[in-house]
Write a structure and sequence with these properties.
- 18% of the residues lie in helices and 29% in strands.
- By secondary structure, the protein is α+β, with helices and mostly antiparallel strands.
- The strands form two sheets. Strands 1-9-8-7-5 form a five-stranded antiparallel beta sheet.
- The protein is globular and about 50 Å long.
Length: 185
């Protein structure tokens, strides 16, 4: 009889212990625990939060493209701050000069230009950084030359030389151009 009573008490203790462990969490059914670095999805770096909560930090968005297309310089200047690049007496940012075989792009007061030498086409930030660090008043042009430029109003542009006629006496140059809006506009 004592053995049966003892077995009943032991069975009750085992059941109570199992119930207590199940309610507080186990390896298979954890209680609420903060996620660890190992809980992050595969491929997510440690510094990238997995929650959608705001950290309060905001990085300004890159300026949008204001104008994109072909610009032809024919010895006259172009104002890149106009709605689309155009020759504006007294308001031009850039001008080409020279003769076929030796053509340059020059800047007017308050503007800079820099040749981009890295392999991929530069984005806004790349161009802004290079004209700030290495901007100058003129650059020699060849077919395929990639330029970054800054206008007198602060717009950043990317120019790619697409055509330089070799038999022209005038400095005619055709560029593929991207002109970004001012930051914050």
């Amino acid at each position: 009889m004592w053995i049966a009573a003892g077995a009943t008490v032991v069975a009750a203790l085992i059941t109570a212990t199992a119930t207590l462990l199940a309610s507080s969490g186990t390896k298979d059914t954890p209680a609420a625990v903060a996620p660890t670095e190992e809980d992050r999805p595969t491929g997510v770096p440690r510094h990238v939060p997995t929650s959608t909560g705001s950290t309060g930090e905001t990085r300004p968005a890159a300026p949008t493209v204001r104008w994109q297309g072909v610009v032809v310089f024919d010895g006259s200047g172009k104002d890149f701050d106009a709605e689309q690049p155009s020759d504006v007496v007294g308001g031009n940012d850039f001008v080409t000069n020279g003769v076929a075989g030796s053509v340059q792009i020059g800047t007017l007061p308050g503007t800079t230009v820099s040749t981009w030498k890295a392999g991929e086409l530069p984005i806004h930030r790349d161009c802004a950084d290079t004209v700030e660090a290495a901007g100058t008043t003129s650059e020699q042009l060849e077919l395929g030359t990639v330029l970054c430029a800054k206008t007198d109003e602060g717009r950043i542009a990317r120019l790619v030389v697409r055509e330089i006629p070799e038999d022209e006496l005038a400095p005619v140059v055709r560029f593929d151009a991207v002109i970004w809006s001012l930051a914050g506009s």
